[in-house]
């Protein structure tokens, strides 16, 4: 039986614990949670998922894995508090955007550390996660981390610097897609459909297009051209996207997010 301790009990911690319990890779009894001050939140997670609240400091010393899941701005205070509570045996997994293995090592000591960038679709076993390790992570720990992440979606190993790009693309990615859906729903109702109908049509369209890209050997532009009849509706729509600088908007979005990840690294 493992002991996995979450330091921070917000959205990402909930997505991960929910995914792991649902996918049967961890039991609720193996998961411990703590946060800064919000006791109601801990009680809610305890009652909803059956996970344990950390009510005995000895738990930290017995932990196989400590998961850092606070906001990057709170990380230094949290790590300073944590340092005296944990032993050298515990591995640390950080889901924090930006914060480097070097910084974590500085505050928590030279130990096995993995940086993971999951996304909130972990909740339903559909995360796209990136992972980078330091050289203290053993083969067994590495397999355990990969197994945990594969249980909640797909995982790809990258070098640590590339995690900034992973964060900008797939870490933040669900928010871009929800933002797109907000726009479809707003405009869909303007052109005569109900919000529910737009939701139904466009969630299926997003899922179908993603699945086509996964299954097909065609590049996205080839699949796009198969939809686009000369002089037809798609052509008119794509022309409007081009006139409104679609590519520039996406480029700015990803570059700004990547740059923010880098600046979070500097505190
Ligand atoms: N949300 C997302 O989609 C993703 C988030 N991430 C990363 O996950 C991390 C958490 O994000 P998210 O879950 O959205 O954040 P939330 O704001 O939802 O949760 C943050 C949690 O950290 C706790 N916390 C703050 N300070 C401390 C401390 N000193 N000791 C212990 N716990 C503390 C808070 O406790 P309290 O409420 O009591 O203050 C709260 O439970 C971030 O670093 C983010 O970069 C990564 C991938 C995706
Ligand atoms: O917005 C953020 O900073 C975090 C990291 C990726 C998703 N949410």
UniProtKB/TrEMBL annotation:
Its EC number is 1.5.1.2. Residues 3-98 form the Pyrroline-5-carboxylate reductase catalytic N-terminal domain. Pathway: Amino-acid biosynthesis; L-proline biosynthesis; L-proline from L-glutamate 5-semialdehyde: step 1/1. Its main location: cytoplasm. One of its GO terms (molecular function) is pyrroline-5-carboxylate reductase activity. It catalyses: L-proline + NAD(+) = (S)-1-pyrroline-5-carboxylate + NADH + 2 H(+); L-proline + NADP(+) = (S)-1-pyrroline-5-carboxylate + NADPH + 2 H(+). GO terms for biological process: L-proline biosynthetic process. It is found in: Cytoplasm. Residues 160-264 form the Pyrroline-5-carboxylate reductase dimerisation domain. NADP(+) binds at residues 7-12, 69-72. Belongs to the pyrroline-5-carboxylate reductase family. Catalyzes the reduction of 1-pyrroline-5-carboxylate (PCA) to L-proline. HAMAP family: P5C_reductase. This is Pyrroline-5-carboxylate reductase. It comes from Lysinibacillus macroides.
